[in-house]
Design brief:
With 460 residues, this protein is α/β, with parallel strands linked by helices. It has 14 helices and 17 strands. 38% of the residues lie in helices and 20% in strands.
C-alpha cells in the first residue's frame, strides 16, 4: 500500500523540486519522488514547502527541566564547570517516572519544532544512591517509552562514565549515578538491544569523554561493542572546553582530538560532540576520518564554550550535524541561525555557511545538518530520497513570516526571520503524521507532565 502527498515545492537532495508527488509504503519508507506532476485528485496537498525532517544528534533529555534555572552568577567567573555543579545537584533527585515525563515533554517539543529523530546521550543510569536499579536498564527504558509514545525516532547511546578526570581519577559523589564498569556497560547493551529492535530504535555507545574513560577502558569497550554490533554508532564529548584541552595536554602531551585519532579507530561511525577547540591539524585529520562534528550552538553559547571554526571544517569537507544538548532551546531553525551568526560575529562576514555547490545559506545549513545528523544517528533519515524513512516537515505557506515568498525564501525566513514563532504546520516521522497545525496530539498532557516533574524536583 502506498501513502501519498502532493507538494507544490519539496526540498530533495539535489535541491528544490516543483509539483512533487511523494509516496511512501506502510513501513514508512520513501518509495518515489516524482517531480513535474499534475496534482492527482484525492491526494492530499501539502500546506507549504516540504522539508526533510531534522535529526537531533545530541540530547541529554533530563536537562530540559533545568533549562533557564542556572542563569544567575554563582562564582566570580561562571563557566561550564560551575553550571555542571548545579546540574549534578538537580540530577541527583531524578527518578525513572520523572525522567520519562520530562523526556516525553521534550520529544513533543522537538517534534513540533521539526526534529524528527534524536540521539540520546544517556548517562543517568542508577538511583540517587548510585546503586543499580533492579533492572539496570530502568532509566534507559524510560527514554525508549517516551520515544515510542511520542513517535520520535531514537538512537540510544548509553554512556560509559568511570572517572572524574584524565588519568583515571576517582569519580566524585555527584557522578555516582553515572558510573559503570566496562563489563556492566556491555551487559546493559545486551539487555537493551531487543528493546531497541522492538521499536526500530538504534543502539550505540557513548564513551562520555577522555576525562571519564581511561585508554584501557576505551579500548576494551570498543572491542566489546564491535563483537555486539560492528556498525553501531559511537559518540563522545571532546574538546568542548579550553580547560579540558589544557588538562589533556598535561596528562598526555596531546590535545584531545589528536589523542583520540591516534588511539582509537575513529571513522564514519563516530560523532565528535562539540569538538570546539581544535588546532588546524586536528580539523584536517578529524574531517578526513569521516567522523561527524556534533555541533550544539545554543548550548555551547549558553555555557560559554567557544566558537567552532565551521568554515575550516567545511573547507576539509567535514560532516556535521546539530543537537540541542541541554535544551536551553529546542528548535533546529534557532540552532542553525546561531551557528551561522556565531561565524559572522567571529569572522565579521555575512553568509558564511555556504559551499561551492550551494550559495543559499539556509538550504546549505538545512541539508548539511540533515546529512550529518542521519550519519550520526546511524538510521536511514537522510532526507527525501527513496529508501530513506519518510520523516518530513511541512511549512505553513500562510504564516506571516512566509506568506507570498518563494520556497527558498520561505526556508530562509523560517531559519532567520520567524522571530521565535514556529512556521511548522505538520511533522511526519516514519510516514506517520505526528504534528498537525503545529501541535502534537499529546501536547497538553506531555507539557503538564514535564511541568509537574520539574515542580517536584525543585521542591525536593
Amino acid at each position: 500500500m502506498h501513502h501519498q502527498l502532493f507538494a507544490e515545492h519539496a526540498l530533495l537532495p539535489e535541491g528544490w523540486a516543483r509539483d512533487v508527488l511523494l509516496q511512501w509504503n506502510a513501513l514508512g519508507q520513501w518509495q518515489a519522488m516524482e517531480a513535474g506532476q499534475a496534482a492527482p485528485p484525492q491526494v492530499p496537498r501539502a500546506a507549504g514547502p516540504v522539508l526533510p525532517g531534522m535529526p537531533n544528534l545530541h540530547s541529554h533529555a533530563f536537562q530540559r527541566a533545568l533549562a533557564g534555572l542556572t542563569e544567575y552568577r554563582s562564582h566570580a567567573q561562571d563557566s561550564f564547570w560551575s553550571w555542571r555543579t548545579l546540574m549534578y545537584r538537580f540530577a541527583a533527585q531524578l527518578g525513572p517516572a520523572q525522567l520519562e515525563a520530562i523526556a516525553t515533554g521534550l520529544y513533543v517539543d522537538m517534534l513540533e519544532a521539526g526534529f524528527t529523530s534524536v540521539c540520546e546521550f544517556h548517562y543517568l543510569h542508577h538511583d540517587a544512591q548510585g546503586q543499580a536499579y533492579a533492572d539496570p536498564a530502568e532509566m534507559s527504558l524510560s527514554l525508549l517509552r517516551a520515544a515510542q509514545r511520542t513517535g520520535i525516532g531514537m538512537t540510544l547511546l548509553p554512556v560509559l562514565y568511570q572517572n572524574s578526570g584524565f588519568g583515571g581519577g576517582d569519580p566524585t559523589a555527584g557522578q555516582s549515578r553515572f558510573i559503570h564498569s566496562t563489563e556492566a556497560m556491555l551487559r546493559l547493551l545486551e539487555r537493551l538491544r531487543p528493546a531497541c529492535d522492538a521499536q526500530s530504535a538504534r543502539l550505540g555507545l557513548a564513551p562520555h569523554s577522555l576525562r571519564a574513560v581511561t585508554p584501557e577502558s576505551l579500548s576494551e569497550v570498543l572491542t566489546g561493542l564491535k563483537a555486539l554490533d560492528a556498525s553501531a554508532p559511537i559518540h563522545i564529548h571532546i574538546a568542548e572546553q579550553t580547560a579540558e584541552v589544557d588538562a589533556c595536554l598535561a596528562w598526555s602531551g596531546q590535545r584531545p582530538v589528536a589523542w583520540l585519532l591516534d588511539h582509537a579507530p575513529v571513522d564514519a561511525r563516530w560523532c565528535l560532540v562539540h569538538a570546539t577547540h581544535m588546532d588546524a591539524h586536528e580539523y584536517q585529520r578529524a574531517a578526513a576520518s569521516g567522523a561527524v562534528a556534533g555541533l550544539c550552538p545554543t548550548t555551547e553559547a549558553n555555557l560559554g564554550d567557544g566558537i567552532f571554526e565551521f568554515k575550516t571544517w567545511q573547507n576539509h569537507q567535514g560532516a556535521w550535524g546539530i543537537g540541542s544538548d541541554s535544551h536551553i532551546a529546542v528548535n533546529p531553525a534557532e540552532d542553525l541561525m546561531l551557528l551561522e551568526y556565531s561565524q559572522r560575529l567571529s569572522l565579521r562576514q555575512r553568509n558564511v555557511a555556504t559551499n561551492a555547490h550551494q550559495p543559499d545559506v539556509a538550504q546549505a545549513l538545512w541539508q548539511g545538518a540533515v546529512a550529518g545528523g542521519a550519519q550520526a544517528a546511524a538510521r536511514p533519515v537522510a532526507g527525501l530520497a527513496v529508501g530513506q524513512q519518510a520523516d518530513f516537515i511541512v511549512l505553513d505557506a500562510q504564516h506571516p513570516a512566509l506568506a507570498g515568498l518563494s520556497p527558498d525564501q520561505m526556508l530562509a525566513s523560517h531559519v532567520f526571520a520567524s522571530s521565535r514563532q514556529s512556521a511548522v504546520a505538520q511533522v511526519w516521522a516514519g510516514g506517520q503524521r505526528l504534528v498537525q497545525q503545529g501541535r502534537h496530539a499529546l501536547h497538553d498532557e506531555a507539557m503538564a507532565g514535564l511541568v509537574q516533574a520539574r515542580r517536584d524536583l525543585l521542591q525536593a
